[in-house]
Amino acid sequence: MYKLQSKLIFYNALTKGFIILILGCFVMIFLDDISYSQLDVRLQDKADRLIKNITDNEVYNKISEDKSFTDYNVLKEEYVFLDKIESDTTVVVNPNFITSPKTVGNETESFRIINYYFKHKGELYHLEIGQSLVAVKRLRKTILLITIFAVLVSLSISLIIDILFNKVLLNPFYKIVDQKINKVNDPLSYNHQLIKTTTQDFRALDESISGLMNKVSNFILKEKQFIANVSHELLTPISILSVRFENILNEENLNELQTKKIFDSIKTLQRLKGVVNSLLLISKIENHQFNKPDIISIESVISEVIYELQDRAENKNISIFNEIQYQFKSYANESLVHTLFFNIINNAIKYNNEDGQIIVKDKTSNEYYNIYIVDNGKGMEKDAIEHAFNRFEKVEDDEEVLESHGLGLAIVKSIAQFHQIDLEIKSDLGIGTTFILRFPNQFMF
Amino acid sequence: MNVLIVEDERGLALEIDEFLSKQGYTIEHARKKATAEEKIFVNQYDFILLDLGLPDGDGFELLHTLKNIKGREDAVIILTARGEVDDRIKGLEDGADDYLAKPFSLNELLARMHAVIRRKHKLEKNDIEVFGFNLDIKNRLVTFGEERINLTKKEFEIFNYLVLNKNRVISRVNLTEHVWGDILEVNSDSNFVDVHVKNLRKKLAIHAEIPWFETVRSIGFRINI
Predict the structure, then answer these.
(1) Largest CB tally within 10 Å, which of A71, A216, B27, B32?
(2) ipTM confidence score
(3) Are A246 and B106 in contact (CB < 8 Å)?
(4) Of the partner residues B19, B81, B173, the one whose CB lies closest to the CB of residue A235
(5) Cis omega (within 30 of 0) on the bond before B103?
(6) In Å, how far is B184's CA from the nearest CA of chain A?
(7) Residue A406: closest CA among chain B residues belongs to which residue?
(8) Predicted confidence (pLDDT) per residue in B67-77, tens digit
(9) Angle CA A159–A161–A164, to nearest 5
(10) How far apart are CA A245 and CA A226, in angstroms?
(11) Which pLDDT belongs to residue A402?
């Protein structure tokens, strides 16, 4: 993928170069024609002058004696040749120009030659005047060099101007992308002030992003309202029932069975409350009603969680080993990350055997910081791993766990997604489960 | 002590009423913001239990009205089903003394009210005697005679909570919620609280027999005084 700016500059340079190249070729092609026609005019002129003078000239007398006459000028750039033609059979084309090599002394050079036939006193004569092309070739070379130089200079100047112009032209676009899209985490706090631009298209883009943000904000506000309503409507009846049961418990004439039943009912209500609160938490996370204001040390969060869970581990005589070695810090929501590790490690305890063990360790690579939570518990079946993060999914046939609501890992998943943490479960039945959390390294500092 | 319950859910208000009346509190009710305002202007209360979502307005407005009356010392505990954290912060900044999310346990409410009383009245001597054991709530100390008993924070919390709710069975879930806070994952497996209770018992039993510290099978615990 390339930037629009680079593409425009590349395109401009290419078309300009192409046009200049074609113009250059034209010049080179016509340069030959132009210089030849110039030469030809001069040769014709010389021939005319010679013929006019020849009648009274003694050269003519010389021809009469020797039949032909040749004369080169001092620098051998020009020559004149004159002879008498005996027979009348030659087809006469007057004048006739050719380019041909001629050897003068021991050097061979191209000459432009005019052949001219004329009659004088009943005799047919042939006049040939040649002009060396060395000068023309030199001129051609010079013009070529100047052309190339001009092309290069004009190309680079136009390239610089293009770059500057594109920069100014596209600046509002990059500003819109950066400030209005990249830096927006929360549509509710979106800055609706338009970016300065004189380009209609960019203004349209800016306005439509603004409109989109308004729509998104409306959705989020509605969702927030809905969540607030649901939470109120569900939690209020649960509260009434639970305090009512508590009051019944304080009656003095209850027998043991009745007491037990009421306690069980309270427990059921607690479960309902747990489900409602968990679902609310998940939808709040998914609606981005949380932010990431804290710089947290993952290591200290984990230590805290392990400390908090120590009694649960002790209850099953499980040992937890904290083998975290790196100090990984990240922008995050501390209470959410706390919940994340709490749920994972709590699960590792819950699904572990008596006297089991749990190891929490870490590893870094160039791209990731990984945390492994390894237990030697019951392990999960392949099928169960696939569904582990779904809502209301729990390991069946397990009496201890049957009463849990199966939202623990769903919460883990949404918190992880919110913080861009990858999750993976590796497990073997009867050997144990490893929970892998992969933090993108870019958040490390 | 008199308590004003500002709560539009009649069922809930009546249950709280029943519970607190038994504890010796005098209760008044207000189901609307307007009624509550009238009552606040006329009477002074030891406690106002304030629901935020009232049919004719926001509970916060009521809190403001109250704070604008000079010389009032009424303790306010906010009761709300709005689980939003910012509500909690707003409430405490505006001068509420505590915050309880619905659904809550009545035992928890009572514990919070006791804590507020202690804070408000800065009780210097705030000890409770339980069969020779002395609970110094202010300094979180337990002594037997002259001897100090080293309890962890959690063990003390459990002991204190059971003593406060004496003669009532406190379930494991209730105890967990009080000591560990309102955790989302409340399962049947709150048995881990047993670890702490077991240790607490051991530490107390060194000094005296504790037949009054009862385990109620498959439910929880009770301290009979």
Answers:
(1) B27
(2) 0.85
(3) yes
(4) B81
(5) yes
(6) 5
(7) B185
(8) 888 888 889 99
(9) 110
(10) 29
(11) 47
